[in-house]
Amino acid sequence: MSKALNQLGLATRAGKLVTGDELVLKMIRSAEAKLVIVAGDASLNTQKKFRDKCATYEVPLAIGFDRERLGSSIGKPERVVLALTDQGFADMITKEIVKTSEVEYIE
Asked: Where does the record place the Ribosomal protein eL8/eL30/eS12/Gadd45 domain (predicted)?
């Protein structure tokens, strides 16, 4: 498992990660989301929805990994979208994501 996925598990245990469409959208709108990660195998509509929302609210977005790996990294079933609510975790994970080839898109 990549270091970025391990760090997602750490953020979960620290209570600095939220998951689920509606909750992540709420965090984006309230400017609490510091980084949003969407699974690379999410539907094109889901990817576009979060790409547009993150661009509007100027929240960094990464599209990569797959839903199964995202879910297992945080100890839950498959997950399509995650949001980090702590800037320190967001910065740490962004550094690792930039190094990996498993992420297709980061903005």
From this structure: 5-90
pLDDT in tens, 38-86: 999 999 999 999 999 999 999 999 998 899 999 999 999 999 999 999 9
Find the largest Cα–Cα distance for the chain.
32
User: Does residue 107 fall inside a structural domain?
Assistant: no
Q: Domain span at residue 60?
A: 3-102
CATH of the domain at 61: 3.30.1330.30
Q: Is 70 helix (H, G, I), strand (E, B) or coil?
A: helix
Within-domain flag for 44: yes
Euclidean distance between CA atoms 99 and 73, whole angstroms: 18
CA 19/CA 37 separation, integer angstroms: 10
Q: How many structural domains is the chain composed of?
A: 1
Residue 53 domain-assigned? yes
List residues bridging with 37 in a β-sheet: 62, 82
Place of tokens 């879910």: 71
Cα of first residue to Cα of last residue in the chain, in angstroms, is 23
